[in-house]
């Protein structure tokens, strides 16, 4: 939204600039009627009574759009409240806008930017190929938060906050291998997803290869295309399929904590005990993981820090006009009771 | 936000109204330079090229505010995506605004309404005493969704969608009594919460009284004030406290499914088996409840229908100018494996 100047207000009211100034600053020299008329227009157009400024400007929108790919994902949902708190602290509101996997995020962002008077954007989740040129062209600051990021999709100049999903997938599986496991099942997101799920899968493969363990596709269960990925259902159906196939595994890497919830259920139904018969490791470190039985060993993403960083980087860009930088976080292993050492047999 | 008329645009540009009209309608008779200048202003102020309208008006905001009390509550979070989808279908965006328990929701709504160019509001969660007079005064349509509602807080004329928490609390406990239980523990929200938690507690008391079972405060565990209510932590600490107190109970009513997640953990740690040693019933019927071990018996709230209704009622009000009506839903019992019949001893 453009800014009205004090001159525009004066024109709309058919008075001089000094008259508007008098009305705003409650100075004498104008009639009550004129003053009232001016103040009505000033209010209608949301003027800030800014005494220091020579040019009174119209209040701009204070809206930041949070554009989310995967709004049904509890991991992102847990961030909304924090984004709200952090943005409000800075005096901004946020507009929540969901994007489906079938839409192009940058196109959606562009349209939203055109329609709304946005101050900035935070893009949460999903995958974009070289989005910088198009996003930079929008002319408002933006930050990508937990958007898939890897060697395949380098974004060296993109304002970006998150973890390296390939690297953390690698660390997760390396940990299981260190615990003596070689037959490691993987419950992944959708096969068509070339974002987070693909990156963590790449990390899984790298860790196996490094340990000289051949990659076996029969150990990987993808989510059905009609199932919300990273959900308990994703985990339940995935683990069921693996169990039913008869393939042998001593450990299972689930790509999200919610996937482990469903996997626990499928293992329980099959009489497979965690961790005695099968070790299970999750990803995300959401609060729930602590309360699972047994307590879930998982890779914790520093959600709070990532939200804060995203907002901070955006604010820096808004205040200083600088393009935000990147901030890559590391996931931390939380060891609880769902993974056990496998002795060599 | 006020609407600029074609006259205002003409004044800002220092031209006549007909010149603006020509520029907008791409008619001859003005210089390219003037046209360019006008179109720049028109674009800056987001005019709709509305050919049928005599007075071109500024594009109004299409924003609905979703004002949430309890943004950390997974139950509300699961509604955000649906609200987004439903509102977008109708051509609206939504602004998510969190309210803390310490704030007065109506005051927050009033301020937000003044600041933003809102088309309407949906107020989610929380408790309000006779909010109608103040909310009606705002002059924009609103709907209260899953705001606590009971005989103590009648809102006969308030646009309202949700369940009757007192009644459903009563049904839940009546079911446990029907299953032979008399010593029924309750894991509630915070004691200071006079909203949903208080209403379900009132229903718990009514069911006991009706069955001639005295109410015993030692069977009720409230959330610590520093703990997010209706969360796994709420359930874990509440159940721990009940177990540690030595009070005997054969069943436990947890006020949310997430509370049962923590309660399961506390019971598991104490070696108390569900349902053999203690039956557990939840509330909400979130997806997760299906994947718990054992599968959770719970009272399901029709979330999707409630979201759709809220949006529909709001749209009716926006289109027809009618004040939205009330729509009270019933919770449905989902029987799984966490509640068992207690034989008379």
How would you portray this structure in words?
Two copies of one chain form a homodimer. Residues 48-59 of chain A have low confidence and may be disordered. Chain A has a six-stranded parallel beta sheet, with helices on both faces. In chain A, helix 10 links the parallel strand 8 and strand 9. The first copy, chain A, has helices at 6-13, 17-24, 32-44, 74-89, 105-115, 132-136, 165-178, 196-210, 232-245, 257-269, 303-320, and strands at 63-69, 93-99, 118-124, 142-145, 160-163, 184-190, 220-223, 251-254, 279-284, 297-300, 326-329, 332-334. The first copy, chain A, has 345 residues and is α/β, with parallel strands linked by helices. Chain A has three domains: 1-60, lambda repressor-like DNA-binding domains (434 Repressor (Amino-terminal Domain), Orthogonal Bundle); 63-163 and 302-330, Rossmann fold, CATH 3.40.50.2300; 166-300, Response regulator (Rossmann fold, 3-Layer(aba) Sandwich). The termini of chain A are far apart. In chain A, helix 4 packs across helix 11, helix 7 packs across helix 8 and helix 9 packs across helix 10. At the A-B interface, helix 1, helix 4, strand 2, helix 9 and helix 10 of A face helix 1, helix 4, strand 2, helix 9 and helix 10 of B. Strand 2 (93-99) of chain A pairs antiparallel with strand 2 (93-99) of chain B, so a sheet runs across the interface.
Topology:
The structure is a homodimer of 345-residue chains.
Chain A: H1 6-13, H2 17-24, H3 32-44, E1 63-69, H4 74-89, E2 93-99, H5 105-115, E3 118-124, H6 132-136, E4 142-145, E5 160-163, H7 165-178, E6 184-190, H8 196-210, E7 220-223, H9 232-245, E8 251-254, H10 257-269, E9 279-284, E10 297-300, H11 303-320, E11 326-329, E12 332-334
Parallel strand pairs in A: 1-2, 1-3, 3-4, 4-5, 5-11, 6-7, 6-8, 8-9, 9-10
Antiparallel strand pairs in A: 10-12
């Amino acid at each position: 939204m453009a800014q009205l100047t004090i001159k525009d207000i004066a024109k709309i009211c058919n008075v001089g600039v000094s008259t508007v100034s008098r009305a705003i600053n409650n100075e004498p020299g104008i009639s009550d009627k004129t003053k009232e008329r001016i103040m009505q227009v000033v209010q209608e157009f949301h003027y800030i009574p800014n005494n220091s400024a020579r040019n009174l400007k119209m209040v701009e929108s204070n809206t930041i759009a949070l554009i989310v790919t995967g709004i049904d994902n509890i991991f992102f949902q847990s961030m909304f409240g924090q984004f709200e708190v952090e943005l409000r602290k800075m005096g901004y509101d946020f507009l929540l806008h969901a994007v489906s996997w079938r839409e192009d995020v940058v196109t959606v962002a562009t349209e939203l930017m055109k329609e709304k008077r946005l101050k900035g954007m935070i893009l949460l989740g999903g995958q974009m190929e070289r989005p910088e040129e198009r996003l930079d062209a929008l002319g408002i600051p933006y930050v990508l938060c937990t958007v898939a990021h890897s060697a395949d999709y380098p974004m060296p100049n993109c304002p970006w906050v998150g973890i390296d999903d390939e690297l953390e997938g690698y660390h997760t599986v390396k940990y299981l291998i260190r615990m003596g496991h070689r037959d490691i099942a993987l419950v992944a997101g959708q096969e068509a997803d070339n974002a987070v799920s693909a990156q963590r899968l790449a990390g899984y493969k790298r860790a196996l290869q490094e340990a000289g363990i051949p990659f076996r596709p029969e150990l990987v269960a993808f989510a059905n295309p009609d199932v919300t990925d990273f959900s308990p259902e994703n985990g339940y159906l995935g683990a069921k399929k693996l169990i039913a196939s008869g393939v042998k595994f001593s450990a299972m890497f689930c790509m999200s904590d919610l996937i482990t919830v469903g996997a626990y259920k499928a293992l329980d139904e099959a009489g497979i005990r965690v961790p005695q018969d099968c070790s299970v490791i999750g990803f995300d470190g959401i609060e729930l993981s602590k309360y699972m039985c047994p307590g879930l060993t998982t890779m914790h993403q520093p959600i709070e820090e990532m939200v804060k960083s995203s907002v901070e980087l955006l604010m820096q860009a808004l205040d200083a006009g600088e393009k935000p930088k990147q901030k890559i976080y590391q996931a931390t292993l939380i060891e609880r009771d769902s993974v056990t050492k496998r002795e060599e047999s």
